[in-house]
Amino acid sequence: MTDYLLIIISTVLVNNFVLVQFLGLCPFMGVSNKLETAMGMSLATTFVLTLSSVCSYLVYTYLLAPLEITYLKTISFILVIAVVVQFTEMVVRKTSPLLYKLLGIFLPLITTNCAVLGVALLNIKKMNGFVDSIVYGFGAAVGFSLALILFSAMRERITVADVPAPFQGTAIGMVTAGLMSLAFLGFTGLVQF
Amino acid sequence: MSLIRITSPHAHRPGNTGSVMLTVLMATLPGLAAMTFFFGWGTLIQVLWGSLLAIALEAACVKLRQRPVSFYLTDYSALVTAVLIGLALPPFAPWWVMTVGIIVAIIIAKQLYGGMGSNPFNPAMVAYALLLVSFPIQMTSWAGPFVMNGDGWAVVSLGDTLSAIFGTAGAAVDAHTMATPLDIMRHRGGFTTEEMWVKDALLANGIGAWHAVSAAYFMGGVFLLYKKIFTWHTPVAMLASLTLLATLSFLLMPDQYPDPFFHLTTGATMLGAFFIATDPVTSATSNKGKLWFGAGIGLLVFVIRTWGNYPDAVAFAILLMNLCAPFIDQYTQPRSYGHAKPNRGMK
């Protein structure tokens, strides 16, 4: 149990995928203009990340490893992720048409979210065991959601600030993301992983 | 008989940002005096050097944006930022440490966002965190309190201090630098806290200096509360949550965790609680929000001090809560009278 808690703390705070490992920056910058959209995106990404880390673990352990074709792992994970995203898209479209419209192009773009592929590959490298992989994927997703939601609340405030013309929009967003990442450095050393 | 009717607000004196900032500057004086008294000339020099740089940079930025310079300089917010960085830096830190800090604070953390009132992060704490991450050696060698050295006040002369800060002759002060109490408690190498209190010279003899400095900041903070510069919510919530966590851990394992009094009176706890966390721009807005904001800082300070790599966590804790503040505001907006509770979140 303590192990799982440490994995969660490590992935959410210490090695946050967005702010410390700099993965998944495209949705982080792209969908963070409004808090509500960011929350929808977080939920969708959490679902995809957890499910894809489960599927990629199963594919790796029961298909690639026995056949000794682990060098195909990157390409097969991309396929697995694409399937999971397609599935999520169908679910969101059925259950929340409004959210489906709000997320727009970013929902299918979860496929190209490097955090998703990053988690699948890091899972193979760092984690051992089925439950570990699920917890790692879930923790990574929570970390991504935390960063995205806090960032979008912040950007709503920055939009109304008197930012100098050359820095408006994405530029000041990048500066803010940098300062957030500086703040997250404070968690260094909480967990050694 | 003529009756003079005046409508509210019945303010007998117009308040403005400048007067608020001047009151804050005044409240830092006891702390500045205590720091100078116990740790020598260094702090005073840092504060003056920082103020000079901050005013020059602020003026340059405002000029670049073609705004009225004197109007923006007389809100004194740049000066407050500089004084806070000066109080937070080690007294013998070289001049370029302060220079980098001021450039980051004024340009990146403040002016890029459009100047005072728009910055999401506290500029002084952004500068401090950046310096701590970038220059760990300069930022962690603190001056020893004079009570430890026994040669009377200002063991390191004014000239030596100046040459240590602005020259290359750091050797003159090297003998007088040491770790902070928090640093010693954090890296105690297998000893229990009780053993450290007896074994370590600074903890055994010099801790009084830190208590006095904290008391001075506390006095300044109470003065600001009395002047109604900020409400009690943020500092009380922060100190209460830190005390609660420290007391619980101390009662459970007294040989592993320092006592709550130690947490409250060393490091930047008091400076952070009264002068930095209460920054009206970067903290939460509503009273309920301020309670959450303060409690979050207390929790993070305890967590990072106890398990993290950095011995004093106030800067990081405040930055982390700064980035939560807009989110807290979103969910602690008070209900306006006669309106239903707003329905926020996903629809």
Describe this structure in words.
Chain A is mostly helical. Chain A has one domain (15-186). Chain A is 73% helix and 0% strand. In chain A, helix 1 runs parallel beside helix 7 and helix 4 crosses helix 5. By secondary structure, chain B is mostly helical. Chain B contains 18 helices and two strands. The mean pLDDT of chain B is 86. The A-B interface holds A 35-36, 39-40, 43, 98-99, 149-151, 153-154, 156-158, 161-164, 167, 172, 175-176, 179-180, 182-190 and B 65, 108-109, 111-115, 118, 120-121, 126, 129-130, 133, 300, 303-304, 307-310, 313, 315-317, 319-320, 322-324, 326-327, 329-330, 345-347. Chain A: Belongs to the NqrDE/RnfAE family. Chain A: The complex is composed of six subunits: RnfA, RnfB, RnfC, RnfD, RnfE and RnfG.
Provide the number of structural domains of chain B. 2
What composes the largest sheet of chain B? 2 strands, antiparallel
Measured as a percent range, the helix fraction of chain A is over 70%
User: Treating each run of at least 4 consecutive H or I residues as one helix, how many helices of chain A?
Assistant: 8
Question: Please, what is the oligomeric state?
Answer: heterodimer
Number of strands of chain A: 0
The count of β-strands of chain B is 2
Envelope shape of chain B: globular
Structural class of the secondary elements of chain A? mainly alpha
Give the SSE order of chain A as H and E letters.
Answer: HHHHHHHH
| Spans of at least 5 consecutive residues with low confidence of chain B | none
Membrane topology (chain B): Multi-pass membrane protein
Organism (chain B): Amphritea opalescens
Enzyme class (chain B): translocase
Subcellular location (chain B): Cell inner membrane
